[in-house]
Amino acid sequence: MTETITQPQPMYRTEDLLTFSTSLLIQAGLDDDKAQIVARTLVEGDLLGHNTHGLALLPGYLKDILAGGMTAHGSYRVLRDKPAVQLWDGERLPGPWLIEKGLDMLIPRARELGVATLAIKRSHHIACLAVYLMRAAKEGMLMVLASSDPAAASVAPFGGTQPVMTPNPIAMGFPCSRGDVLIDISASITTNGMCNRRAAAGETFAEDWLMDAQGHPTNDPAVFAQNPPGTILPIGGLSYGHKGYGLGLMVEALTGGLSGWGRADPKEGWGATVHITLYDPDAFGGRADFLRQMDHLAGSCIHNVPRVPGTKVRLPGQAGLALRAEQLQQGVKLHPGILPGLTAFAAKFNVALPVSL
């Protein structure tokens, strides 16, 4: 469900946001090349409309750099290397940088072998998953990306009341002649970021997307702060939450299971365990037939008779890509709470705040 914004959303030039966020990251101590990739990934999140997973994450990233929770220098370690598979220790380096370096490795391998997979343990947070799908789709690849945070828990198993997993996002992107398809979902109904934002603002959800520690459904994210804490419901809610529960376990198997590191290990702080697989359609039925099949299906979807007259059926990612194109031209709309959360860092590092249009 789209968040209701009651305050006006100021607009900023993409280049100004990139310069501002890169400068803050560098001043906090992050290597220049890493800062540029992290900043671009966060701004891309806002361009796509994922405003809880764009620059809203920057204050937390900066705090972790300063506290040593995010590694600012160095590189990952390759722990396993087979023709179609690698396992990395991310050394708690920035997640966006690790994902981009992972794609640098995976793309040529997938072209050669048809499929290539990377698992990363001990990554820092990886931000908005949809951002990475765009690169894979432009390369003509089908990409599967999944992430879990073994240091946190906010989702109970279906039928239970105690948190065990995170929302566990899983994403898939692939090319389509009608516009690349970007599927970025999670195994829970909503996310930690949205719950934290609404709780801080004293807002509730329109529906019961959470439950308290006694198992009662609620729309109030303030249950997170209770002792014992409430939890986010899995996809399907109280009636069919076994579906989201199963999806969450699938993500855990792809990430923590395959990497050999996760919830069974000591917690190290905010981070991620990651799974990426790239598929080259040319190694299967061929790119032409892949597009023929997906274009046919896409047409059947977007020309479907809408449930609500006057609306249209969209492909996943279609609205985000349209918003991105619009904001690149007209300016990025930032949630009104984002820049106030960065004002203290701007003053600390003597970095000028971007000026709204």
Task: Walk me through the structure.
Helix content is 38%, strand content 16%. It is an alpha+beta fold. A hairpin with a 6-residue loop joins strand 6 and strand 7. Helix 1 (14-28) packs antiparallel against helix 2, helix 1 (14-28) packs parallel to helix 3 (58-67) and helix 2 packs across helix 4. The longest helix is centred in the first third of the chain and has 19 residues, at 95-113. The two termini are 28 Å apart.
Please render the helix and strand layout as text.
Elements: E1 11-12, H1 14-28, H2 32-47, H3 58-67, E2 77-82, E3 85-89, H4 95-113, E4 115-123, H5 129-138, E5 142-148, E6 169-174, E7 181-186, H6 192-200, E8 210-211, E9 217-218, E10 231-232, H7 237-240, H8 242-259, E11 272-279, H9 287-302, H10 318-330, E12 332-333, H11 343-348
Parallel strand pairs: 3-4
Antiparallel strand pairs: 1-12, 2-3, 4-11, 5-6, 5-11, 6-7, 8-9, 8-10
Helix pairs in contact: 1-2, 1-3, 2-4
CATH class of the largest domain: Alpha Beta
Q: What's the gyration radius in Å?
A: 20 Å
The CATH homologous superfamily of the largest domain = Malate/L-lactate/L-sulpholactate dehydrogenase, NADPH binding domain
Percent in helix: 25-40%
* Unreliable stretches: 1-5
Span between termini: 28 Å
Task: Please list the strands of the largest sheet in the order they lie side by side.
Answer: 2-3-4-11-5-6-7
Can you count the beta strands?
12
- CATH arch. level architecture of the largest domain: 2-Layer Sandwich
Question: N-to-C SSE series?
Answer: EHHHEEHEHEEEHEEEHHEHHEH
